[in-house]
Amino acid sequence: MKIAIAGAGAMGSRIGLMLHQAGNEVVLIDRWPEHIQAIREKGLIGEFEDQTITAKLPIYSPEEIVEGHTNVDLVIALTKSMQLEAMFKDINAIIGKDTFVFCLLNGLGHEETLSKFVAKQNIIFGTTTWTAGLAGPGHAKLVGTGSIEMENLAPEGKDFTLKVIDIFKQAGLNPIYSDNVRYSIWKKACINGTLNGLCTILDCNIAEFGSMSMARTLIETIIGEFAVVAKAEGIELDQAQAIEAVEATYDVKTQGLHYPSMYQDLIRNHRKTEIDYINGAVWQKGQKYQIQTPYCAFLTQLVHGKEELLNAK
């Protein structure tokens, strides 16, 4: 299968590398010049727990990919949420009528963006528990294992989605076909909607947040707002299950010492965040359904205020 990875950062590098090892034709697309240059000069370095491999994978900027490239079978979307539309505008030339898009982004509201570029029957949505990091340009650190859950947005897309399942199985990516991936996306959004914004504003890691006396009240309130908006969209969230999933991350032996991605983007690197696609999306959807979401609204505004103070780009 000919596969383009739109957003070849840490996770894109991991998935692209594993699909390449399984014999697929993989093209990486990214905007980071140093990352592109390093992979072109030295190959993509994948540092696994038991081995380090180097793969010579083609990588292009979105502007370069349109010149001389035919349509691909599958585009795996792994950009930052706020970069999704710009990426697909730039790579639209390689998306044909039979091209499918598999969206693995965190957050909510991506269906509306992708529907501008491909038919709904050609969209697959999913979530993943795989992790990845970058030690530097062109150097991915790949620790642990995980799985990928996916489901076609429209019934007509199921046959191709099952082909993707087979391809991902051969690559060792542990895919799972879901009958309700939207529930999983909302559940994961609850985790991001509590830990990302709160750890960023409070300047703490996950374990430090979990140790606070008011942590339970904060996550219950925010997840409550997620649940009532999800219900308006036809998703019945199990709030107790979502709270349990958040609190399971506090353990210092697992994720507790981790600083969430939003913290790393804003506090460490002064980059703009994905808050509009997490708490901000709940706030916006709440306005649509005339549902009050004061905690999500306030947290969204606080994060944007911090972006301004840090002159985030």
TrEMBL record:
Catalytic activities: (R)-pantoate + NADP(+) = 2-dehydropantoate + NADPH + H(+)
An example Gene Ontology CC term for this record: cytoplasm
One example GO MF annotation: NADP binding
Pfam families, alphabetized: ApbA, ApbA_C
NCBIfam families in alphabetical order: apbA_panE, PRK06522.1-2
Family of the protein in this entry: Belongs to the ketopantoate reductase family.
PANTHER family, sorted: 2-DEHYDROPANTOATE 2-REDUCTASE, 2-DEHYDROPANTOATE 2-REDUCTASE-RELATED
Name of the protein in question: 2-dehydropantoate 2-reductase
Originating species: Enterococcus hermanniensis
Taxon lineage: Bacteria, Bacillati, Bacillota, Bacilli, Lactobacillales
